[in-house]
Amino acid sequence: MKTGVIKQVVGIDISKDDFQVCFSVLTDNLDVKIRASRKFKNTQDGFDSFCDWFSSKQTADLPIAFTMEATGVYYEGLAYFLYNKGFTVHVILPNQVKKYGQSLGVKSKTDSIDAAVLARMGLERKLSPWKPFSPNLQLLKQLCRERDRLIAERTTIKNHLHSYSHQGVLPKDSIKRCQKQIAFLNKLLTQVEKQIEGVVQKDTALHQRLKHVQTIKGVAFWTAIIIISETNGFATFHSIKQLTSYAGLDIRIAESGKWKGKSKISKQGNSYIRKALYFPAFCMAKHDPHTQQYYQKLRLKKGVTMIAAVAVQRKILALIYTLWKKQEDFKPQM
What we know:
By secondary structure, the chain is of the alpha/beta class. It has helices at residues 44-55, 76-84, 94-103, 111-124, 135-165, 172-202, 204-213, 221-230, 240-247, 271-287, 289-302, 305-326, and strands at residues 5-14, 18-27, 32-41, 64-69, 88-92, 251-252, 255-256, 259-260, 264-265. It has a 5-stranded mixed β-sheet with strand order 3-2-1-4-5. Strands 6-9 form a two-stranded antiparallel sheet. The relative contact order is 0.08.
């Protein structure tokens, strides 16, 4: 008896120059079968060839979906291409793909194997559809990351300058070059920050929602805009738990039988969000009485300052999410 196809998914393992695809189907007796595999160039011509390829192989009266990993920015071109053609696209965090592959007992890692794992994941799991960033938030995300890079470069050069300034024989030429580099980076940083502020000022709805978020003690403009731009205004998040996992602030518990290891955050998520929450957490723990009580209680219980600080980071992230969604100001507990 011939089996029928009830679901079809293309798994895509993408890199800077090309992408490996695996066309897989789920039959009505719940078997996963690979229909075809191939590699394409990560270019517009490659996208067009890919479209012709899967169109010739898909079951015409059945929807087709595409599952890919969030690999830097390299996936975005193809994701936008497929989305604009009306297809369902799933973009999965690397740690989720890794865990799923481990559950299948996959030990090797090649482009073709990764594509097959992504296809199978799309067939077996109920995944949330990907939505592109709004143009403003996409621009702000890029600008905030540029700002972060400039600050990091300036910090590195400032450290060099500090080192030069404390040597026995001062390298005057090196000091001058460092000072010029810092002045140049300050100029670029001012330009980027003015552009970010200009984009926010022109978007009335975004500006108003950011004002709600900034009513949280310790959460200034830059913390708020980084988190909002990195999450696309929480467009695809439906719970605080989901958001916490995306930020890499979820707890990974290590225990087996009577043995209990140390619990720690996964750090398998968006590092820009964790970085943006670092100083606000300590600020809120110092200036907000209720957070201070919560922080001190955890610090005494766990004996580690950073465990308490991470807990405060999660609390701030949850507050930002709630105020953004409800469009309300923060109301401290009485």
